[in-house]
Amino acid sequence: MDPLSEVLSLLSTQSSAFAGLKAGGDWAIDFPPPDGIKFNAIVEGVCWLIVEGVEQPIRLEAGDCFLLSRGRAFSLRSNLALPGIQSDAIYRHAVNGIACCGTADAFFLIGGRFAFGDETGLLFDELPPVAIVKNGSDQASVLNWALQRIAHELASPSPGNSIVVQHLGHIMLVQILRIYLAQEGNSTPSWLLAISDPRIGAVIQAIHANPAHSWTVENLAKVAGVSRSTLALRFKQKAGIAPLEYVSRWRMQLATRALKANHTTISSIAQKLGYDSDSAFSHAFKRIMKCSPREYREEAQSMK
């Protein structure tokens, strides 16, 4: 399994929601900070996007998408000078998940939201507050197909509607991440940038394939086919952290999933992740997760 698929499969989706918006005439809507990761795609028309903490408004056209990776309030509007109404005022009257504002004849947007558990940091922490995906790339054709299918499912509910929309939403999320990575100018260190680099991506895939291995910078450099110094520099440039720090963080991603399952002993988890003793595992876990494995498990169980 490739690293992106693996990380997405590890994310525990606590909730998800999908909705549409039709608007027309003069309109402006203010949205509260989303709970989780939110993406919207413009099916028809144009609008302005304003995101809390982002200096300039962003003009969006049909086929454009945006992904909000932080819990920040945002606004959508036809005219920047208009005062906004609260989104609850129109979404409470939504029919089949589609809300209407104004004349509802010039603009159509599909939105999705995923609320994940606490494993999302690896995937989303280094993304900008808003990631814009412009229409026009080759991969956008798959995104547009999923977009049209979600629009159809929302407008014409049929048996199995919810599961179809959820899977299409996952397809859209992956495509948005792929297209964002393919755009020029995305050079801020992040996990997504790292896996898109052939050499660093190969290193990450090797770590994921055998997380319990006694990895060193030297043997990871052999996987990449470069010197130790080159790997250390390039990994830091792409991922924002050192190679062995990534090994530790990935092990903790796997550890938290195992601890939540509650059917494996802490000693067994430590051994499966390559730690020689429970104390070594506990020390590594505390350094990254800021609590002991036992405390993490107890907290996870209390949340169920």
From TrEMBL:
| Gene3D superfamilies noted in UniProt | Homeodomain-like
InterPro entries attached to this UniProt entry: AraC_lig, AraC_XylS_family_regulators, Homeodomain-like_sf, HTH_AraC, HTH_AraC-typ_CS, Tscrpt_reg_AraC-type_HTH
Q: What are the record keywords, sorted?
A: DNA-binding, Transcription, Transcription regulation
Q: Does the keyword DNA-binding apply?
A: yes
Q: Which domain of life is it from?
A: Bacteria
What residues does the HTH araC/xylS-type domain cover? 201-299
Q: Which residues form the signal peptide?
A: none
Q: Which SUPFAM superfamilies match?
A: Homeodomain-like
Membrane-spanning residues where?
A: none
Protein name per Swiss-Prot or TrEMBL? AraC family transcriptional regulator
Q: Give the source species.
A: Dyella koreensis
